[in-house]
C-alpha cells in the first residue's frame, strides 16, 4: 500500500514571527564625546558602588536557566503539535502518514470510491475527552473538495481512531473516502469545540 509523506505544516490562528534586522549606527560627531565623556564615568561609577557580588551572580543565574533546554525538548519529542481544543482538553499529536487503501476490519468503500488512511500518534496532555471527540479529520482532494472522516464512521479501519486509547496511542487510523481518480492533497485536523483551531498539512 502506498504511503505519502507530509510536507510543511500550518497552524491557523498562530502568531506570526517578526524578523528584525540590525542597522549600522551612524558615527558620533567628534564634538559630542568630550561633552558627554565626564558625565558617563560619573554615571558608571554610581552603579559600580552598589554593584556588589550579587550583580554578577544575578547575571549568571539567567545564563544557567533551563530556557535553552526548552526548545530542545519539543524537537526531541515524538509529537509535532500540541493543541488545546478550548473546551478543557489538550492533545499532543503527530500525523505520521497518509496511505491508500488502508487495511479495514469491517466495511468497504462505496462503488466508484476508495479509502485513504490518515495515521496518528497522540498523547493526552489534559482533560478526559477522546481524541476523535476533540478533533475532526478531513482530506482535501485534488478536486478541491473537503472529505470528512465522519462520513465513513460506519466502517472500521484496523487500529481505528474511534477506538484509540484515551491516554495515548500510536498509528491510530482514520479512514476517509475519496472518489476514484481524486488524490489526497491536504490533511486537515480541526478542533470541534472552542476557537476552531486547525492544522493543515500538505500531502506530497
From TrEMBL:
Residues 1-20 form the signal peptide. Residues 29-110 are annotated as: Disordered. It comes from the Bacteria. Residues 37-47, 56-75 have a biased composition (Low complexity). Keywords: Signal. This is Uncharacterized protein. It comes from Agrococcus citreus.
